[in-house]
Amino acid sequence: MEQLSLEKELSSNPYPGRGIVIGKSTDGTKAVTAYFIMGRSSNSRNRIFAEEGEGIRTQAFDESKLEDPSLIIYAPVRVLGNNTIVTNGDQTDTIYDGLKEGLTFEQSLRSREFEPDGPNYTPRISGVMEVADGSYNYSMSILKSNNGNPDACNRYTFSYENPVAGEGHFIHTYMHDGNPLPSFEGEPKLVGIDGDIDTFTEMVWKNLNEDNKVSLFVRFINIADGTYETRIVNKNV
Questions:
Q1: Residue pLDDT, tens place only, 186-207
Q2: Confidence of residue 71 (pLDDT cuts 50, 70, 90)
Q3: pLDDT tens for each residue of 99-126
Q4: FRET pair for 231, CA 20 to 30 Å: which of 53, 197, 211, 218?
């Protein structure tokens, strides 16, 4: 698979929707993840990321303007032991509970499907990173309607063992803007991971569409000992 430029993937797409990047730093010492949200409606744009425990939660920036919280207020990132869970919806909690009960990442998601927001039927995208005893593996998932048919759910899981330094995978909810919004197609895109946490954060934020970007979360986890650094950028401040 050809390695793509994450910078170009972001800058050339005005509306990828919500996106997850997971990979390994150039020097091979850090597990890397980024999660961003974008919005077209005033309700979607009226959000920020706020820290909650070892993870984050979306919050309304202006509570008086909050319309329907059902699909926009959730915990995108939670940590369970050696596992960092990153998703675009409340399936974060489903995965957290499943792993806690001894289920696998894939088994945990069997009870969920795409979002009930027809005609888009937004895919649920998820990732889990396991950093333990100096090793690092990750998996990604997408649950989507069958070409817009809500009667069928297509489930895809991709696992990456001992990922290569300077490489990552990028999955997002929509191929591009549209009406209805076209769901992501294919396996996660192979992209390069460059720079330290601040350089990487700045690159991602800078290349998200200025009108549609809302919030960005980035975390670099030390593979050797599990300690981490986090960056959060909110358009609404």
A1: 999 999 999 999 999 999 999 9
A2: confident
A3: 999 999 999 999 999 999 999 999 999 9
A4: 211
Q: Taken in order 22, 25, 26, 29, is the CA torsion positive or negative?
A: negative
Burial class (CB in 10 A: 0-12, 13-18, 19+), 126: buried
* pTM summary value: 0.98
Provide the CATH number for the domain around residue 39.
3.60.20.20
Element (H, E) at 192: strand 189-192
CA distances from 81 to 128, 151, 174 (A): 12, 36, 31
Q: Is residue 116 part of a domain?
A: yes
99 class by beta-carbon count within 10 Å (0-12 exposed, 13-18 middle, 19+ buried): buried
> Cβ contacts of residue 179 below 8 Å, gap of 6+?
none
Number of domains comprising the chain: 1
| Angstrom distance (rounded) from CA 38 to CA 117 | 16
Give the integer Cα–Cα distance in Å for 133 and 115.
Answer: 36
Q: Is residue 104 part of a domain?
A: yes
CB–CB of 172/17 below 8 Å?
yes
Q: Is the dihedral of CA 227, 164, 190, 156 positive or negative?
A: negative
